[in-house]
Specification:
five-stranded parallel beta sheet; Rossmann fold; single chain; 6 helices; 164 residues
Length: 164
């Protein structure tokens, strides 16, 4: 295996923006660990187990991506600890807009201070998916808006079921 990268996030739920970042990462890295965070300070619509299942269904069933190159896991530790566990030297972070950059820049700097051998790479999704956020998708779904342009089929169904 040439390289492994960690792509951490809440993925509540995973969107086409996240999926773009995963697909682009697979062009650079042999393996991508998609790590769904469980942060006790955050309120999630889906449980950690549901989010892991949703990510797997979306990537492997809906999109038929290779489960040999993508590992989906839950985590509740420092991202650099995941890097050590999976022998990854890169953390992937998605950027949607300039407003994301300040937080992501600080996070990358802190990770670098914690482990100077680990690099952070910022990736943007394709233009048509840059405005998508899980927060907005959930709000649109709550108001009975059309969400199939933002999520794979299995996620659309699970999100609608969750909100009923």
């Amino acid at each position: 295996m040439r390289n492994t990268a960690i792509y951490p996030g809440t993925f509540d739920p995973i969107t086409f923006g996240h999926i773009d970042v995963i697909k682009k990462s697979l062009k650079i890295f042999d393996k991508v660990v998609v790590a769904a965070a469980e942060n006790i300070n955050k309120d999630y619509l889906f449980t950690i187990d549901e989010r892991v299942e949703i990510i797997k269904d979306s990537l492997f069933k809906d999109l038929k991506l290779s489960s040999k190159r993508i590992l989906v896991i839950p985590f509740n530790t420092l991202t650099i600890n995941l890097c050590n566990k999976y022998k990854a030297n890169v953390i992937i972070r998605g950027l949607r807009a300039v407003s994301d950059f300040e937080y992501e820049f600080q996070l990358a700097g802190m990770n670098k201070k914690l482990n100077e051998k680990i690099e952070t790479i910022f990736m943007m999704s394709d233009v048509e998916n840059q405005i998508i956020s899980s927060k907005f998708v959930k709000e649109i779904a709550r108001l009975d808006g059309k969400i199939d342009r933002f999520l794979t089929k299995s996620i659309v169904k699970k999100l609608k079921n969750k909100l009923e």
